[in-house]
Amino acid sequence: MTGWIGDDLDRIGRAEQVAVASRRPDGTLSPYVTIWGVRCGDIYVRSAYGPDNGWCRRAKTRGAGRIRAGGLQRDVRFVEPPTDVHSAIDDAYHT
C-alpha cells in the first residue's frame, strides 16, 4: 500500500464493506469479492470462510491485487500481518 495518503486509508477504513480482487500472473484482475475489512493502522481483510477459501488462497499466493471501497480503488499487497497485530484486528472486527 505504498504511496497512500492518510485520507485514502481513512476513507477505506470507514467503509463497511470492501471489494478485493487478486492480480493474475498475466496482470488481469480476478473477479472482485465483497468482504469486511478493518483498519488497524493498515487495512486488513479476512475470509469469513477461513484461509482455505478460494479468493483468500489466490490472494495470498499471488500477493497483489486491487481494493475498492469508500469511493476509491487502490492497488494492494496481500501479506500476513505481524503476529503482534492479530489481537487488535480481532478487536476491530468485533467492534
General description of the model:
The chain is α+β, with helices and mostly antiparallel strands and 95 residues long. The chain contains three helices and six strands. It has helices at 6-14, 54-62, 86-94; strands spanning 18-22, 33-35, 37-40, 42-45, 64-69, 72-77. The strands form two sheets. A four-stranded antiparallel sheet has the order 2-1-5-6. Strands 3-4 form a two-stranded antiparallel ribbon. It is globular, with a radius of gyration of 13 Å. It starts with 5 loop residues before the first helix and ends with a helix. The model has no long low-confidence stretch (mean pLDDT 89).
Short description:
With 95 residues, the protein is of the alpha+beta class. The chain contains 3 helices and 6 strands; from the N terminus they run αββββαββα. The longest helix is centred in the first third of the chain and has 9 residues.
What share of residues is helical?
A: 25-40%
For the sheet with most strands, the description reads: 4 strands, antiparallel
Q: Point out poorly predicted stretches.
A: none
Radius of gyration: 13 Å
Count of DSSP strands: 6
Distance between the termini: 24 Å
The topology string of helices and strands comes to HEEEEHEEH
How are strands sequenced across the largest beta sheet?
Answer: 2-1-5-6
* Coarse structural class: alpha+beta
Question: What is the global morphology?
Answer: globular
Tally of contiguous helical segments = 3
What amount of the residues lies in strands?
Answer: 25-35%
Average pLDDT number: 89
